[in-house]
Amino acid sequence: MKRVSIFYAVIAGLTVLDSFLLSKPNLLGKIGLIIYKYHYLRTFPRTLMTVSIVVIISLSIAELTKILVKNQTVKRATGKIILSFLILLSAAALIKTGMDFSGWTYNHTGHRFKYGAYLLPFILISIFTFALISLPKLPGIAPVETINNEPSDADNKS
Hints:
Low-confidence stretches: none
Helix content: over 70%
Strand content: under 5%
């Protein structure tokens, strides 16, 4: 339980840090936010709300998958596949972010904004990886007992 509490505290701290970084672009970045109509990233409270919604939805999906596996509604292998797919999807978002920020338009938004953009997919990868690692183990089938080599009562009567 302590490990889960520490994980949630780290995710909350990273969410606030990411919101701060995304809300502080340089002058060209601020102009870009206006041009591209990114209203949800203009101020720290809006950015915090946006990043928090994304993180809460991701945490909800991860916890729902764990609950479905625990209740045996979904097999553990299926839960692993779902969480692995979400990790790959988040990694693809991280790669796309890298490609976007190597281009001219986003490259001039400032280091803080760029690091904030990279941090969000990393947070999502961390959430889904933690859920995959802490996926509950299903109660397995009891091992088959070894055959007892002692003679039975029927063998003793002869």
